[in-house]
Amino acid sequence: MKKFTLCLKISLLSAFCMFLCAFSDPETITQSINFLQKTFTDHYDNSQESDQVKRYELNVTNNGFCRYKRYFNNGKTEYFAFKLSKFKDMDYYGTTTSGKLYIHTKGDDVIVQTYKDRGGDVDSMATQLVIPLKNMEAEDLNLIRDNLNKINAQVSAP
Predict the structure, then answer these.
(1) What gap in Å lies between CA 5 and CA 11, rounded to an integer?
(2) Hey, what's the signal peptide range on this chain (predicted)?
(3) Which of 15, 125, 130, 158 is the most exposed place for a label (fewest CB within 10 A)?
(4) pLDDT tens digit string along 119-131?
């Protein structure tokens, strides 16, 4: 009877734990994507390119893409895009006031398209995306890396 009671207690305890886990709120890919979008928008440094770039678009989409488009004063347009699941590593060169974030991918995974350039329209691939940022603390950079790694882990999990 003691053995039966022990097994019953273990079963009830594990069922209760499963019940609590079912209602926990794990971070989802959407939360990580929203964090990246907000961080890139809040910290984007337009002053690093203001004499050349008329406007820009920087979006992290719900389907897991980072898209960065720059419209130059001379009419040229540059478009960069990569799937967040292809993230490999990142580097930040600069100070807490101003710098550039280099996002590296696993291979030639960054789509680069140039429109209305003197050399014509060009489509190519690259291994990194460079984003000018301002007011970045080490903690902010760690959170960016953590969220990119979370997206990778959730996408590659079976």
Answers:
(1) 10
(2) 1-24
(3) 158
(4) 888 899 999 999 9
Question: Cβ–Cβ contacts within 10 Å for residue 3, how many?
Answer: 7
pTM of the prediction?
Answer: 0.78
Structure confidence by residue, pLDDT tens digits, 79-103: 999 998 899 999 999 999 999 999 9
> 111: which strand partners?
81, 125
Contact 93, 122 (CB under 8 A): no
DSSP conformational letter for 44: B
Q: What whole-number distance in Å separates Cα of residue 96 and Cα of residue 98? A: 6
With beta carbons less than 8 A apart as the criterion, state whether 140 and 43 touch.
yes
Assigned token pair, 17: 């734990």
Distance CA 68, CA 135 (A): 20
CB 104 within 8 A of CB 127: yes
